[in-house]
Structures are given as C-alpha cells and as structure tokens.
Amino acid sequence: MIKNAVSNNQIFNPQDEACPVCAVFDHIYRTSSFQTEMKIPETVGEGYFRRIVVKPSLRLSVSDMTFHKRITMGEKQGSSLYSLAFCLGEGFLWRVEGNPKREYGIACGESCIFNRDQGISISSHHPGSRFWGIYVEFDLDIIAGFMQHRGKDHAGKNLFAGRNFLCNGKISPGIRLILNDMINCRYREQLKKIYLEGKILELVAVYLDETVFEDGARASAGKFSAYDREALYKARKILDENLATPPTLGKLAKMICLNEYKLKTGFKELFGLPVHAYIIDKRMELARLLIEEKQLLVTEAAPMVGYNDLSYFAERFRGKYGVNPSQYSKKV
C-alpha cells in the first residue's frame, strides 16, 4: 500500500557530491506537490524535467534534457512501484549495483517495464544526447484490475513475479498519440489531474492490450496451430511496415504461406479487425501522428499513409476522430 506521494528514492551523482542537477532532481522526488518542474541551467545544458503526482500510487515523469557535459546520476531506489517507460529520444543504458550487477538498456522508440525496488541504479548521459521520454510509476494493483476484467485473476502480479525488467519492443503510433496528449496537456490544476489520470489508465490499457494480452492470446488461442499463429503475427508485422502500400490479400496470404480464408478469419479473430479495417485504423493513427508531431500539412500527410484522394482521406479521418483533418491540424 502506497501511503503518500513522497518518494523514498535518493538522487545523487556518485562522481560529484555537489552536482546541482542531481540536487534538484532529489528535491523534486521528495516533494508531494501535484506538479514540480525543473529547467536545466544554461551552464549545464537545456531542457526540463517534470514530475506529476496524480495520486500516491500513480505518478508521471516527463523529461526532455540535453547536457553539455557528461552527467552521471545514481538513484537509490526505495519504492514498491513499477515504472512503464517510453524512450522518445536517444537510447541509453543503466546498471543496477548488486551481486551480480545487472545492466539494462532501452533504444529510441522502445518501451519497457521495470521494478523500482532494486537498490542503486547508475546511468550516464553523454554530451549532446537528447534524454527525452516519459514514464509512469504505478502500483501493480492497477494491472491486476485490468487483468480481472479480462478474466485473468492474479495474472497481473504473476506476470512480474521474479522479474525486474520486461522490455516489449517498439512504441506503436496509437501509444505515441497518447504520450503526445499527456506531454502537451493544456489543462491546469484539478482538471489536469483528472485528465492525466484518465490518459494514464488509457495508456496502460492500450499497452497491456498490445503486449501482455497479445502474448496471452498467442499462448491460449486454441483455434490456431502454432504455425498459423506465427503466420498471422507475421502478416500483421508486414502490414505495420507497409501501411502506405500494403500487399493485396492474395499476395499477403502467399507471403505468410496461409490460404486467404485462414488469413481473413484468423486475422479478425486474433486482432479484432478485418485486414482492410486494420490497415485503415493504423493509417489514421499514423496520419494524426504526422500532423500532430511532425507538423505536416494534410496534403503532405495523406500521401504518406497511402491516400492520394484527399476527400477520401478526410472521410476516413473524420470517421475515426470525429473531425476533419484540416480542422484538426489548426488545433495542434
């Protein structure tokens, strides 16, 4: 049970006890304020670190920092919370002191879950490297609650039993959009707290659906042979990598060595959407990301996701998000 929002973690620089950056980080982690933000001093680098305590068992940190010189940070961890981290900038490594020492890493565009109750962790940030990411600290009861709704009692905690680190690969466009919403939240005070709590729960739900529940489906889908399941996951990977110019259903079936009937019925059963609907859904997520994050014009984004007919693109976009893409681009 998490009794308060003040972290027991200690932030320090093992090479410089007087490090001003680590001193401010340590102060931020020891405050129970709803939101605390630190701007990196110009003499050290640029960027910011923001920590938001939505509730004692649900905390959010956003960082976008670039240092002029090498900065080493140590963290003496004393929290029973887990962290769900998303790396948006350059990848980095950290090690956990112990016997034996453990080293972990995350690359740009990847996500991972790790246990914060591991002792002392050490990470180094190199000059010019953009340390940009977002992570959510949460109690495993949140995951257990989602699991129960899926008929998987106790599966949430069992998933992490004896595991300190769980990496689940690339950040999907859908999750990237949720992260953008969280980073760029325009609300304040209580309304912001309510908004972010909803967004964090949405993030965890989508993340679990794309990773944990997917793995469960892979293991428990008794209707499919192991060969068919692997072929269907290969089909989805092919589509994800070729959204603008996806292969025809017949060609896709040949590429994964399944007949078209198995491809159509199996894909919908395993992923919840027919192949064509899946392509449209993922195209729209990518289009919104291009408009929102890359600041592309609608006329630039549409062809990049496979639409040369702007009217047809607008119809699809409006069907998913309830607003025309031109109107949406004016808001971002």
TrEMBL record:
PANTHER family: REGULATORY PROTEIN PCHR (PTHR47893:SF1). The keyword Transcription regulation applies. It comes from the Bacteria. The keyword Transcription regulation applies. This is Helix-turn-helix-domain containing protein, AraC type. Pfam families: HTH_18. The lineage of its organism: Bacteria, Bacillati, Bacillota, Negativicutes, Selenomonadales. Keywords: DNA-binding, Transcription, Transcription regulation. SUPFAM superfamilies: Homeodomain-like.
